[in-house]
Amino acid sequence: MSLITLSNVSKRFGAEEVLRGVSFGVERGDHLALIGTNGAGKSTILRMIAGLEEPDGGTVGRERGLRLAYLPQDPDFAGAETAYEAMLDVFRHVIEAQERLRLLEAEMARDPNPALMAEYGELQALIEHAGYDYRDRIERVLLGLELGRDLWDVPIDNLSGGQRTRANLARTLLEDADLLLLDEPTNHLDIPAVEWLESYLRDLKRSFVIVAHDRYLLDRVTNRTVEVSLGRTAEYDAPYSRFLQLKAERTERQQEEWEAQQRHIARTEEFIRRYGAGQRSKEARGRQKRLDRLERIERPQDAEAVHLRLEPARRSGDLVLQARNLVAGYDGNPLVTLPEDVVVRRGERVAVVGPNGAGKTTLLRTLVGELEPLEGTIRWGSNTTLGYYSQSLESLDESRTVLEEIQQARPIGEEEGRGYLGRFLFSGDDVFKTVSVLSGGERSRVALARLILEAPNVLILDEPTNHLDIASRDALQAVLSSFGGTILFVSHDRFLIDSLAQQLWVVDAGVMTRYAGTYSGYADGTAAPLDRTEAATRESGPPVERYSLLDLEAEAVSLAARLADVGSAGTVAQLRELIDRYQTVQRSLETAQGQWIDDIRKRLRSSSA
After folding, report:
1. Please, which residues bridge with residue 380 across strands?
2. Are residues 277 and 422 part of one domain?
3. Is the pLDDT confidence value at 501 over 60?
4. Which residues pair with 211 in a beta bridge?
């Protein structure tokens, strides 16, 4: 028998039928991704599997004796226990068994009767099953999820929301369960923690069902995908990227079958109309009966997705941002020190990455003027208009309606506003909801809708994919890729970074270091550093700052990518401008390379003399 079997399950919330006819199973060894848009019913399915909700129709079957561990999106801890005590509680039965073993050993020394020996054997088997190394396992999981030793003795109630979420994930991973149910386990995880979780789940021998919006994680840890769409589910024996291919092929076949059936129905109905009352009426009635019994093929359809489109940005100057000797932070607490001279040029796409608490958001807030720099200067170039998306969504007014909120960005009428908001999945009376009652995903969509209406030519984005499902993330990635302006963004979404960024600003241990290329290149060590220390410069030859070799190479790569993007859809003026800039950079690069080679030759002649 399967661990879990859902058969024709349905679920209603009020008048709305969220799920209908849901059927799939979970086998031993399955690493299953449960995907779908926000609100599709994924969390409801997990809660029904966990036994926390009952279906309105159908059945949820579980293997006898099945042990489940369920991770909800909102952590639930009882009492004022510390983080470490919460982990120990998972192994309470093991700890009690060890204590009982010690008592039994003393009793058996006095009276080695068979009953005591049998109990001793059972307890020893229990401990061996759980593992004598449970304290090592606790340490490995807590540190992997970036809950350092300084937090282990802190009461759970005193931890931040993100820390509590990570502690709950740690506790769930440590559970001795046959099946893990993980609802958004990457919430509040930075990239290193996500990569640790990825490694943990990839090597896990137990089964799990995971709801997540991280494409890379799903591709690397799952072997099956169940999509929830329009109340129904479809199964695919493949991880996410392969699922997309299989789904496209299945949808194409279904569309062809539906069209063929529609043609057959039309021909049959035409025959019945023509001959229903004539000499061939008996044959027409027979065809009508067969048509009535025909199992109709559903026309392929998918859940609504966000449709984003950025207006052409007004052209800014070539130099967009220059920061000199910049230190960002708070009084008495400097968080990020930038290289001596940092320049961002028009059209560049820069991703700011680093661990939680490193100061990435503080850096963005300093650059946009919300915080004063502790040291140094910031200069924005000519004709730059900034659009800032804050991960806290604090710019939204809780008392305004969705429609009123976007009207703050541009004075548009109700009809136009409703049509515009429809692209962000706000339909009907949804536009009259106040911001205060919106979910996290809905607030994100309002903030993006407002930002796009502002038509900036520089986007400053702090975790723009938070609260967005995969389809919405894909839509955002596509629109940002086609954006003609400049983008500086903070994200833990590796797919977005790899798809968009041409340069990385890596913030760690209070220092920002720049790299050319994608996050994958940085992770595997192939990304070129754009900043070098004086010691490294002295060892490697001529100063990088003097020739700007790596800066020029990075700009050439950036311009080549923009030429490819603009080539098919850009104007002649845009193409001419990019080509002129690319040729100028190439000439400068050739000159710098020549100077560098001449300097190396002089050093060689000097050393040989």
Report:
1. 321
2. no
3. yes
4. 183
Q: Which tokens sit at 207?
A: 């089964």
- CA distance readout (Å), 415 to 37, 137, 397, 403, 407: 27, 58, 22, 10, 12
Range of the domain at 289: 244-293
Poorest-pLDDT segment among 9-13, 50-54, 426-430: 426-430
The band of 363, judged by pLDDT with boundaries at 50, 70 and 90, is: very high
pLDDT of residue 553: 65
Q: Quick one: three-class SS letters along 309-372?
A: CCCCCCCCCCEEEEEEEEEEEECCEEEEECCCEEEEECCCEEEEECCCCCCHHHHHHHHCCCCC
From CA 9, how far away is CA 14, in angstroms rounded? Answer: 16
**513-542: per-residue pLDDT in tens?**
999 888 888 888 888 888 653 333 333 443
Phi-psi group of 510: left, alpha or beta (phi > 0 → left; psi -120 to 50 → alpha; rest → beta)? left
| Mean per-residue pLDDT, 62-76 | 90
CA distances from 555 to 17, 45, 586 (A): 53, 48, 9
Co-location of 229 and 336 in the same domain: no
Q: Say which CATH number the domain at 380 has.
A: 3.40.50.300
Burial class of residue 456 (count of CB atoms within 10 Å of its CB; 0-12, 13-18, 19+): buried
Cβ(198)–Cβ(190) under 8 Å?
Answer: no
The pair phi, psi for residue 565, each rounded to 5°, is: -65, -45
pLDDT for 572: 58
442 in the same domain as 328: yes
CA atoms within 13 A on the CB side of 192: 14
Q: Is there a single domain that holds both residue 261 and residue 398?
A: no
How large a percentage of the chain has pLDDT more than 70?
Answer: 85
Q: What is the pLDDT of residue 79?
A: 63
Alpha carbon dihedral 421, 423, 424, 426, in 10-degree steps, equals 50
Q: Is residue 507 part of a domain?
A: yes
Euclidean distance between the first and final Cα of the chain, in Å?
82
- Mean pLDDT throughout 202-213? 94
Q: Give the model's pLDDT for residue 412.
A: 87
Per-residue model confidence (pLDDT) at position 570: 53
- Indicate whether 92 belongs to any domain: no
DSSP string, 126-181: HHHHH-TTHHHHHHHHHHHTT--GGGTTSBGGGS-HHHHHHHHHHHHHHS--SEEE
Does residue 565 sit in the same domain as residue 466? Answer: yes
Query: β-pairing, 319-330 with 333-337?
Result: antiparallel
Q: Is residue 427 part of a domain?
A: yes
- Do residues 403 and 428 make contact, with C-beta atoms less than 8 angstroms apart? no
> Which strand (E) or helix (H) includes residue 14?
none
The domain tally of the chain equals 3
Over the stretch 307-350, which tens digit does the pLDDT of each residue have? 667 676 688 888 999 999 999 999 989 999 999 899 999 999 99
Give residue 95's pLDDT.
78
**pLDDT at residue number 306:** 64
Centroid of chain to Cα 541: 41
Q: What angle do CA 596, 598, 600 make, to 5 degrees?
A: 70
Q: CA torsion 481→485→491→495, rounded to 10°?
A: 10
* Same structural domain, 250 and 220: no
User: What pLDDT score was predicted for residue 535?
Assistant: 31
